[in-house]
Specification:
alpha+beta
Length: 174
């Protein structure tokens, strides 16, 4: 069984003492695919930027990874789109991540009634590109030289999935 917990620092001891250290550990382990030259590396700053849209994912009570939503478009309680960023522990990749991902995408579309979700991916991150494709995300474009890694310009790929398309293709399937 898969579930997601909203992670807000200071909300309870379980979050502060168990979840946040696990998220920080994943950020440290996978920073090569999550960060560019502009990332500060300050965990507190990271948390303040994405709160309250940080979620910890679990499979049968075991921490799988985290998802956060950012760059919200829309307003007055009606959101058009957002960017989704995912980080999954290596031991949960494959079928568990896909199943949890479908549940998460479905819940976010239903809860916020979003028109679409987007993801920005470094062009060489084949694992995430394949993961997004398995959830129904399609390549929408290339942002050439969008950021820098190791003092060199790198491209970001834009992937997106539309609420209507997702519903039609998944028809409530998990």
């Amino acid at each position: 069984m898969y579930n997601f917990l909203s992670v807000i620092k200071g909300s309870n001891p379980f979050v502060d003492n168990y979840i946040l250290p696990k998220i920080k550990d994943l950020l440290d382990r996978y920073k090569n695919v999550l960060e560019d030259d502009y990332t500060t590396g300050c965990f507190e700053e990271f948390l303040s930027k994405i709160s309250p849209h940080l979620y910890a994912g679990f499979q049968d009570g075991r921490f799988m990874g985290f998802v956060y939503l950012s760059d919200w478009k829309g307003g007055k309680g009606e959101f058009h789109s957002c960017i989704v960023t995912v980080c999954v522990d290596r031991k949960f990749r494959g079928k568990p991540a896909r199943e949890a991902g479908k549940i998460f995408v479905d819940k976010i579309f239903k809860y916020y009634n979003l028109y679409k979700m987007k993801a920005l991916v470094f062009e060489n991150n084949i694992n995430v590109i394949n993961f997004l494709a398995s959830l129904g995300f399609k390549k929408e474009g290339i942002l050439e030289g969008e950021t820098f890694k190791h003092n060199k310009p790198v491209n970001l790929l834009v992937y997106s999935v539309f609420n209507k398309t997702y519903r039609r293709n998944h028809n409530g399937k998990k």
